[in-house]
Amino acid sequence: MLSALSANDPLLSNLFYAAFDGGYTPWDFPEFFLAPPTTPKPVTSSTGSDEPDQTLAKLKPESDYSDRGVTIVEERKRRRMVSNRESARRSRMRKQRHLENLRNQLNLFRVKNRELNTQLQILHNHCDQVRAENDWLRSERTLLCQKLSNITQFMAFQ
């Protein structure tokens, strides 16, 4: 939104520098320009809305309404900080649970892998036995075929 007053307006310049008419700047005496210290408020649950807390308004006296905007902002900031800490804690707990689940799953996979390797070794041994037996049977067949051929030739010559 554009301002109706220009930057060179004498009214504006007097308004902005009126605080420094005594010759003192905030840098000369910073303690005069600091906000008064506030005591921490107890943590209360929040609905998450941006509306000011009505119970906070009921507890404050009339003279504190000038500081009310600042304290409400500080209270919201503090609540947000507490909420963020809780959220981070929950996130760390979720991450920890997930990591534990992954470790459990890894252990199960290792056990299953050992079982499968054992079964594979048994199958290799069985396959080797079947091949050896197959080789023996082929050689015996060759031997028996040779014997049969010899007997057949012998019978043919008689």
TrEMBL record:
UniProt keyword terms in alphabetical order: Coiled coil, DNA-binding, Nucleus, Transcription, Transcription regulation
Any coiled-coil regions, as ranges: 85-133
Protein location: Nucleus
UniProt-recorded Gene Ontology molecular function terms: DNA-binding transcription factor activity; protein heterodimerization activity; transcription cis-regulatory region binding
Region called Disordered, residue ranges: 38-65
GO cellular component: nucleus
Highest taxon above the source species: Eukaryota
DNA-binding recorded as keyword: yes
GO biological processes: positive regulation of DNA-templated transcription
Identification of the protein by name: Putative transcription factor bZIP family
